[in-house]
Every structure is written in C-alpha cells, then in structure tokens.
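Page 42, continued from yesterday. The earlier attempt failed because a stray header line got pasted into the input along with the sequence. Redoing it now with the clean sequence only.
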Amino acid sequence: MSPPIVLSFGGGTNSVAILVEAVRRGLHIDAILFADTGGEMPETYRYLWELQPWLERHGLPSVTVVRGSFRGGDYTLEEHSLRLQRMPSKAYGRKSCSVRFKIQPQDKWRNSWAPAQEAWARGEKVVSITGYDADEPWRAKHKEDDKYTYSYPLIDWRMGREECAHAIMRAGIALPGKSACFYCPSSRPAEVAKLAASHPDLFGRGLAMEEAAAPTMRGAVRGLGSNFSWRSVGESVRTQAALPIARDIDDDCGCYDGARDADRILAPDYCGSFKSIVPLPRESSADWPLARDWAGTTGPGWLQDDLFGGVA
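This time it went through. Structure tokens are written below.
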C-alpha cells in the first residue's frame, strides 16, 4: 500500500500547477489542504470555489479548508491581531503568523486523518507536497522527519514560475493570481494603493489593524507595511502625492502557496500566548469610515460561508 499524499494548497500559481501536472503525469493525490487565515482576497476564495468542478472531473479530491481555532471556534488572524493589538508578525520581521494560522491547522487535520494514522501505524510516513518551484530550490530545506516525507515536485519537474503559468494555461484554466492575505505586511505601497482603490472595505480593515497596534509599535516599525504605514498610503492616494518609499524586503512570509515555515521557535513570540488580550478598541481616528465599521466585527466569515459552501 502506497503512503498517503497530501498537497498543501496555497491557492496560487504553484499549487494550481501541481494539480494540473498531477493529472497529466498520473500523480495520485489523496488530500488537498487549504489553510484559510480568513484574510485571503475575495478573488482567491472565488477561484477555489470555481476550481472545484475541474477537480471533480479529473478525479481529484475536493479542497479541504482548515482554519485556526480559539476556545473551540474558528479564529482568524485578523481577529487575533485586533485582540492583541499587534499586527501580523511579518510587520515585526518575523514569520510566526504562518505557524499559527497555516501550519498548525494543517498539522491538526493530518493528525486526525485516518489514512495518515494508518500509515504511521504501519511505520510509514505521509508524503507532504509543497509548491516550491525550480526558481527557488533553496526553500526546499526539509526532506523528512518522524512523520512526513516532504516532496517538492515542481523542483523535480524543473518547473519555474513561468513554466507553472504555461502549464495552467495549456490546461484551459484561468490563472489564479497572487494568493496572500490582503493585509500582508510584505505588500508594497503600490499594492496597498491598488487594494484601497479596488477593495476599500479590505483597506479599511487593514487600516483598523494598523491603528489597533499603534500602542505596540516600536523602533523602525511604522505600520502594517513594516517600514511604512497604510495610513500614509491612503493619504498619498487621496492627495495624489508620491507613494511612500519602502526598502526592498523579503517577500517570503511563509504563506507562499502553502509553504511550510521552518522557524517554529518564533511562534510563541506572537501567537503562543493570550495573556495579553486587551479589549478591542471601538473608536478609531481614521478618516476611512470602514476602518471604524470593521473595528468591532469578527472578520470576513460571511465571505467564507458564501464562497466555500460545499467545498470543505
């Protein structure tokens, strides 16, 4: 009996290319996991919904959606940030938000998955697929541990980002676009400005996260963009001034197409303790009304329920 194979599906170009090539090359996949932080772009949620019929036609499993939890219920990174008055850890130069809201929910699901338990009982390891491509082989650091063998088929197939895009288009599937949290601190000022124009509600929610964290900002951290604030981008857009200049920072936030974050030791620094929970501020100094509207809400659950119905 072959060991079970699980794909960590990030919703972006690389993981979609793996699915396309799995069909073409006859690679069997037993489970497809998508860790939903609650902060993906609406286009990503809709893409996952629209991808489902293609998966069914080609004999692939449905996407299983997993989420972070707290006190027995679903819990988003946005809720977590507002509760603790801290921005996602990438804004502080860390990557631990992906541990709490990407890696741990997937690990929890796999630990209770019957095929995985049966494989471990036989002394076998589960194969975990991650979508690192041939343009970034240095990211494929993990080969195996006590429970998993880690596989990076795009590297084995010598497929870089361009080859991945071509494979998707040859299959007649629309390209998924960038998959990342809309409030990701790795976003450039131009991307934040585009978000403000195309999704002002999401921009308002990101601004609320930045404002809630203002009392905890220290040193060079100026806002949700780490070395620039989203408020400064908003002001620049409204006054048609030059966007703030951001230094070139590493885009690897650990969430890239379901990437596995190796640096688990950082998790307790941001995500491991709830002792510092503070009341959520109900007032905002923002001129953007949606920042105030979203400051007391629980996040984008309505969007998840609408677009993921029947997928999980």
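Notes: Confidence is low (pLDDT under 50) at residues 248-252, 256-312.
Reminder to self: strip header lines before submitting.
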